[in-house]
Write a structure and sequence with these properties.
This protein is mainly alpha-helical and about 210 residues long. It has one domain: MFS general substrate transporter like domains (Growth Hormone, Chain: A, Up-down Bundle), CATH 1.20.1250.20. The protein contains five helices and no strands.
Length: about 210
């Protein structure tokens, strides 16, 4: 039988499926860029949780000052602790809708804006009723950020590590809040100075993706 010529063009040995050095370099650059963007997003989320800790932990320290300034009764003081959860529950109900309509970026913009609004209102030391409204806005912003970023962290490959970084950042803010308020009050700054500082710390977050 005569030897049949081999069609070398169809030989799998001649088809090199490996990427060229140029392609590998391009892939490496894209991966590095994606890693950098992811790290920036994680850092932004950590910053968000730090500011949440600053605000929430300082309520107890500011409470006696609020009570003295507004001449509050025990019932009125208790309202300060009842109002933020209302905002949080509302956030839990509307978070899914915000995600579907505006995506992750919508949460990243809306929640900080709500918190900026809340701290600005308190910093102007209006009537006590408006302070309660501000605390409700704060609870709404907190609920949007907390639920959304925790779900985002849980979907990652290293979910436990990222979740630990977020909650560790909240703890850092929680430890710093009362300490800073105490320093301000012992130096005879009015209590609303603290919320003016929080407004300044919140502003960079409104532009984060």
């Amino acid at each position: 039988m005569a030897h049949q010529p081999t069609n070398h063009e169809d030989s799998p040995l001649l088809h090199d499926n490996s990427s060229s050095p140029g392609d590998n370099e391009t892939t490496r650059n894209v991966d590095e860029k994606m890693d950098t963007r992811l790290m920036l997003k994680i850092a932004a989320a950590m910053y968000s949780f730090t500011t949440l800790g600053l605000f929430n932990s300082s309520i107890g320290t500011v409470l006696p000052l609020l009570s003295s300034y507004y001449h509050l009764t025990d019932l009125q003081v208790s309202c300060i602790f009842l109002v933020p959860p209302i905002g949080y529950v509302v956030a839990a109900q509307c978070s899914d809708t915000v995600h579907h309509r505006f995506g992750q970026r919508g949460i990243a913009v809306a929640a900080p804006l709500l918190q900026i609004l809340a701290t600005t209102m308190v910093a102007t030391h209006p009537g006590f009723g408006w302070v309660l409204v501000a605390f409700m806005f704060q609870g709404l912003g907190t609920g949007l950020l907390d639920g959304s970023w925790c779900a985002w962290a849980g979907s990652m490959e290293k979910a436990n590590t990222v979740s630990g970084l977020l909650h560790g950042s909240y703890s850092v803010g929680g430890a710093m809040g009362p300490f800073i308020v105490t320093i301000l009050t012992t130096r005879h700054f009015p209590w609303w100075t603290w919320y003016s500082i929080l407004v300044s710390s919140l502003n960079p977050r409104s532009s984060l993706p």
